[in-house]
Amino acid sequence: MMAKTTEERMDEVIEAYGFEGTLVSNQPFGNGHINDTRVLLYEIGRMGRLRVILQRINRNVFKNPEQLMENIVNVTAYLRRKIEEKGGDPLRETLNVIPARDGKFFYKDSQEEYWRAYTFITDASCYDVVENQNDFYETALAFGNFQALLADYPAETLHETIEKFHDTRNRFAVFKKAVEDDVMGRAESVRREIEFVLEREKDANFFSELIEKKEIPIRVTHNDTKLNNIMIDNKTGKGVCVIDLDTVMPGLAMYDFGDSIRFGASTGEEDEKDLDKVSCDMELFELYTKGFLKGCDGKLTSREIELMPMGAKVMTYECGIRFLTDYLQGDVYFRIHRPEHNLDRCRTQLKLVADMEKKWQTMQEIVAKYNK
Ligand code: ADP
Ligand code: GN1
Ligand code: MG
Questions:
Q1: Distance from CA of residue 294 to its chain's centroid?
Q2: In this structure, which residue's CA is closest to atom 5 in ligand 1?
Q3: What residues flank ligand 1, with Cβ below 6 Å?
Q4: Dihedral of CA 101/30/296/87: which sign?
Q5: pTM (two decimals)
Q6: Mind listing the pLDDT tens digit for each residue in 304-321?
């Protein structure tokens, strides 16, 4: 049998979901690097128009989509209860998975690809750079609150959707191997970036060693807390819903704090080519620190708070390593939109690391102010 065209596959998936109404449009959506996200617009008789998110899960990245969906369904059910208890709106403040016709929370198509559908969060937006400082503060509150809401979630019931996801020591080892293998013959041209990474091996080991010594608690964390993984309400400016729950797994509070800083506190976009535009903004760093700790609602220990600057540096460094590794391996992981996209992304991350090293004292002082 001939493989189905993309259009035929879309028809198959849409049929499996059996959404009500007339499909008006079906477009790619958002700026995620991993899944294929589409927004479908339906006209439902006299009731008006309604949008739905349809995503194809990236199978290269997520080896077990069924376990992944089990995590998401359980975590969102738990969040829904917590949000209701607090008098919030669970249809808007957490993701809601729409089941397929057969009642399953995913659809496996005839080519073994996995799809899922979410209700569309209306009147809210995702951003790739901070457009106003208040928004950033609100995202910090929301990501902190996300952690507080999940503080008592039974972590041992969660599947590890990506093995060793924030194991920076392992990321470093994989990177070294990619340099040795140099399958694309690109290593020579990025000697400086490689050296930068190699000189900081001790940073790659930092959290792994603390975990081994049991010095810091393992919590349920989001693990991918960049600005475009949160929806900001268009009217109120509040962080209304934390999205992209694929990587909710046991982790460290510093990962969530750090990943938000590397993306949101940067003065440039993640793929900015002009590195003069890229630095870690200390005002944004302070704002995020303040908001995140408020959102965490006293759940973090003083030791965890003290380690937040290190979380920022290690997450940024790790992301730089990952982009560079992907560049060396031939751009097999992150979606790219131009030939050297991963290299450009890697350079902004390494620039941020260097900038944080210069501002280290200030970062420590800011965090100390809120560590009471
Ligand atoms: P990826 O893993 O590829 O980053 P995401 O789940 O983050 O995928 O989705 C990509 C983008 O799609 C988000 O940044 C956001 O703009 C949009 N999006 C995802 N889910 C929803 C939703 N339920 N409502 C509205 N927009 C959404
Ligand atoms: C990916 O899925 P997305 O685009 O929100 C990646 C993160 C990286 C980020 C870099 C599952 O996030 O770990 O930090 O790109 N997600 C996965 O922008 O690998
Ligand atoms: Mg995303």
A1: 21
A2: 244
A3: 29-35, 37, 53, 95, 118, 120-121, 126, 228-229, 243-244, 246
A4: negative
A5: 0.96
A6: 999 999 999 999 999 999
